[in-house]
């Protein structure tokens, strides 16, 4: 996020414009909460995780604050706003542009990599690297103690982090929300590995995947019934539920590691910094050209502008990736 914020600010300064940071997303716009984004305030943030502007789940339409957002454009003399965020931000941005004609441009940010219309979102590469490092480390115990290690990773609606992290680290099973993998199938894979004298296994599961059985029964595992601040079900616990099933069916000692928010923190990879920088500069140029209602997107190696509405669909994992990973499962 900080790399993208810096990029928008520096691109503006480069072209003789002034950039202002809006704190806590749309809440800052409605409540006049800004910070200067000048050469000094964006210095040294390229390598910092998180966002110097903080974030919130504030929705101007829901809060009856569209009038205040309008006024902010006048009072602050804003020509355009670049909104950086995931599904939630993109939807608010699309609505404010389409229904209220505000001059907005979107930048896709989520570690989940599930925004439609763009090949990659920044944050994803860093999360995948953290998962890869963690699994590499877990291999040590798995191998030395002949254990099954279940690694629960993020991925609410899609299994991009599980699929890429699992492939990169040589996982022996990958369970994602897009496709059903039954407990029985995983058990068969683990047994097959043992038959090939591989007495340990690493199972990667996305937190949004369901616990599925050959009988057709499927269970979404949640730690609490609550939804989060965005209204999504709070997830977590599939790792433990799956581990219990695997251990009781195979008899092999099975342990669980939940990577949780570790995946969303720390120093971003160079790939993410470059991607965020490209997105930020491109989004600024769209705003400068008055090309509003668009989202910056990566297609192949090119930056392109797509309508915000096109980004609305959730982008599922290319199952071809899982097909490749499967060749290494048994
Ligand atoms: O950023 C999206 C995401 O990583 C999802 O994969 C995950 O379900 C969610 O965030 C968890 O967010 P939190 O627990 O911080 O609300």
Please characterize this protein's 3D structure.
- With 330 residues, the chain is of the alpha/beta class.
- 38% of the residues lie in helices and 16% in strands.
- It has helices at residues 2-14, 26-30, 66-75, 87-100, 124-145, 160-169, 183-195, 238-250, 270-288, 319-326, and strands spanning 19-22, 34-37, 81-85, 104-108, 148-153, 173-175, 201-206, 211-212, 218-219, 254-258, 294-299, 302-307.
- 6-O-phosphono-beta-D-fructofuranose binds at residues 110-112, 154-156, 207, 228, 235.
Features:
10 helices, 12 strands, 330 residues, 4-stranded parallel β-sheet
Small-molecule binders = 6-O-phosphono-beta-D-fructofuranose
What's the main sheet like? 4 strands, mixed
- State the shape: elongated
Strand content: 15-25%
Amino- and carboxy-terminal Cα gap:
39 Å
The count of β-strands is 12
Strand line-up across the major sheet = 3-4-11-12
Given the helix and strand composition, which structural class is it?
alpha/beta
Could you estimate the helical fraction of the residues in percent? 25-40%
Mean pLDDT: 96
Number of helices: 10
Low-confidence stretches: none
- Element pattern in H and E: HEHEHEHEHEHEHEEEHEHEEH
Gyration radius (Cα, Å) is 22 Å
Q: In brief, what are we looking at here?
A:
38% of the residues lie in helices and 16% in strands. By secondary structure, it is an alpha/beta fold.
Topology:
Blueprint: H1 2-14, E1 19-22, H2 26-30, E2 34-37, H3 66-75, E3 81-85, H4 87-100, E4 104-108, H5 124-145, E5 148-153, H6 160-169, E6 173-175, H7 183-195, E7 201-206, E8 211-212, E9 218-219, H8 238-250, E10 254-258, H9 270-288, E11 294-299, E12 302-307, H10 319-326
Parallel strand pairs: 3-4, 4-11, 5-7, 5-10, 6-7
Antiparallel strand pairs: 1-2, 8-9, 11-12
Helix pairs in contact: 1-9, 5-6, 6-10, 7-8
Bound molecules: 6-O-phosphono-beta-D-fructofuranose.
């Amino acid at each position: 996020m900080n790399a993208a914020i810096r990029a928008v600010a520096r691109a503006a300064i480069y072209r003789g414009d002034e950039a202002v940071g809006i704190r806590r997303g749309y809440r800052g716009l409605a409540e006049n909460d800004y910070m200067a984004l000048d050469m000094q305030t964006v210095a040294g943030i390229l390598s910092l995780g998180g966002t110097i502007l903080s974030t919130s789940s504030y929705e101007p339409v829901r809060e009856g604050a569209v009038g205040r957002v309008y006024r902010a454009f006048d009072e602050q003399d804003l020509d355009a706003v670049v909104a950086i965020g995931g599904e939630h931000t993109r939807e608010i941005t699309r609505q404010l542009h389409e229904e209220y004609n505000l001059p907005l441009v979107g930048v896709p940010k989520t570690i989940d990599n599930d925004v439609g219309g763009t090949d990659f979102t920044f944050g994803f590469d860093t999360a995948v690297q953290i998962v890869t490092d963690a699994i590499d480390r877990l291999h040590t115990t798995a191998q030395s103690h002949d254990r099954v290690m279940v690694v629960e990773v993020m991925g609410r609606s899609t299994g991009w982090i599980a699929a890429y992290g699992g492939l990169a680290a040589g996982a022996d099973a990958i369970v994602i929300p897009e496709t059903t993998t039954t407990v029985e199938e995983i058990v068969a894979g683990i047994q097959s590995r043992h038959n090939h004298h591989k007495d340990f296994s690493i199972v990667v599961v996305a937190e949004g995947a369901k616990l599925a059985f050959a009988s057709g029964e499927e269970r979404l595992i949640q730690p609490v019934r609550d939804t989060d601040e965005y209204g999504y079900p709070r997830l977590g616990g599939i790792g433990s539920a799956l581990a219990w099933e695997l251990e009781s069916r195979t008899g092999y000692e099975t342990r669980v590691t939940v990577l949780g928010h570790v995946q969303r923190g720390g120093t971003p990879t160079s790939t993410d910094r470059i991607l965020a920088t490209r997105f930020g500069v491109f989004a600024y140029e769209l705003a400068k050209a008055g090309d509003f209602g668009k989202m910056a997107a990566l297609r192949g190696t090119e930056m392109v502008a797509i309508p915000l509405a096109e980004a609305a669909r959730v982008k599922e994992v290319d199952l071809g990736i899982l097909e490749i990973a499967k060749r290494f499962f048994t």
